[in-house]
Amino acid sequence: MASSSSSSLFVITFLLFSPLCFSRESPSQIPDGTLNLSLLWYGQFTPVQKERVRDFIESLNFDAKEGLDPKVSAWWKVVEGYQERYEVKEIYRQKSSSRTVAPKIKVKVVRSYVDEKMMFGKDLTIDNGEKLVETAVGNMSKVVPVVLLSSQVRAHHVGFCNGTCQEYGLTIKSNIKGQEKKQPYVMVSDPEVQCPGECAWPFHIANKGPHGMTYQPPSGEIGADALIIQLATGLADVATNPAITESLFKSEAPYSTDGNHTSSIYIVDPATKCFRVFGSGAFPGFTGRIRVDPLTGGAFNSHGINHLKFLIPSIWDP
């Protein structure tokens, strides 16, 4: 279900009982965008962790009618809906009207690189963090590097384990003409060893606030499913940030002007704003209404490819 704020401007959509997709009548769709991901596996990961990440990414665009609901792809449709919240450049405007409709954002892994020896060391700093982003990008263009940090990497110095174990942003790189160019990235940490009480709840007891119930992870591995929660948060936040989508999807940042012009209202980090919210009725120490697999005991709120189950964060619905 959804709960609305007093101003009724925004609605938090919870996965279990809301379809997370909208019905729109429009003459055409604007061209689809593509989120090309370059994965850097920094450190040692279990086979289950690697498999869960691949399956989750593939599930984002899994729109087949078969399979159980709610789907991961329905959650991703809310992310796609953020493209309507700000102006879209002329090549994306509908010819017959000034209205725009949300594009599909196809997510595809174009490169996967493994560095088990951790060439930049086990302590993450701002400097070697930028080097990790550069390594993930390589010589490719128009990609979003996703740096996955294993449980061996200590990331406290850059703010991880302080309310989140993921971050996204823009770093500066030089192109072939020597000009600076902004490079979006996502960095995700495996919190199972470093700070499970901060970033692996509800699979581990919370380190502060009401502890609430803990659940079994749907894959059977805390490190795998805690990684998915952080990855889902990072991907949703990076794909809805106008400063980043300006370059990815040829869109313009929201604006607010006086006079006869329209004001565009938007929200940044829609998944981060639903921290520790996984279902309807959530409150501190309670995930909200989620499901538990009677066979495995794993907690989940969405389905992916091959009937796989995931627990992913709720997202603020525009």
TrEMBL record:
A Pfam family it matches: Phi_1
The text of the family note is: Belongs to the EXORDIUM family.
Q: Which residues form the signal peptide?
A: 1-23
Which PANTHER family does this entry report, sorted A to Z? PROTEIN EXORDIUM-LIKE 5, PROTEIN EXORDIUM-LIKE 6
Cell compartment(s), UniProt: Secreted, Extracellular space, Apoplast
Q: Which domain of life is it from?
A: Eukaryota
Source organism per entry reads Brassica napus
What's the protein called, per UniProt?
Answer: Protein EXORDIUM-like 6
* Keywords per UniProt: Apoplast, Secreted, Signal
